[in-house]
Amino acid sequence: MTDQGRTTKPQELPADGATLAFDALRHAVEELARNIDSDMATIRRGLEAAFDRYDGLASPADYGNHFERMADDMVLIAEHVKALEISPALRYGPDDYGRMFEVIADRVIVNLHRAKLGGSDIESVTRELRELVYAARDRDQQDRRLLTAGLAGLLLGGLLTWTVVRVWQSLSF
């Protein structure tokens, strides 16, 4: 302390236990204060870095279109599920299908019997058609032969006429 420019030293007191304990406590508190100051500085730097990063983040993503598309897909899936619910595959059980197959088999057997009985009719119609086709072929062959014979007769008649005229002319001279 100064007193009109003079520096005085604090008087040294005899060291008793209370004074020494108080000095030790004061030194411990001062050391803790320094440690707290350094910890606070570290925390402050960390917070500043976190706020800098937070400020640097972009605005939150807009998921509106994604959710809208998901909602449309859910509506489509619901429609498909509804269509499946009313499909015959889910409405009928194995017993129902067994009965349906029995009815179908009975109808097939009845149709086979009809086809066997009506088979003779089909065979007779087939035979008649075959005969008509053969007759038409025969007529075509007859027409070709007649045409060939006519052309041959015409050619021979012309050749014969020419020959007769030549022979007649040679005899008359």
Number of continuous helical runs: 4
Roughly how many Å is the radius of gyration? 63 Å
Helix content: over 70%
Task: Please give the order of strands in the largest beta sheet.
Answer: 1-2
* Mean pLDDT rating: 82
How many DSSP-defined strands? 2
- The geometry reads as elongated
Determine the strand fraction and express it as a percent band: under 5%
- Unreliable residue stretches: 5-9
Order of helices and strands: EEHHHH
Q: Note the main sheet.
A: 2 strands, antiparallel
- Structural class call reads mainly alpha
Q: Kindly, what is the distance between the CA atoms of the first and last residues, rounded to a whole number of angstroms?
A: 190 Å
Give a quick precis of the structure.
The protein is an all-alpha fold and 173 residues long. Helix content is 84%, strand content 2%. Strand 1 (2-3) and strand 2 form a beta hairpin.
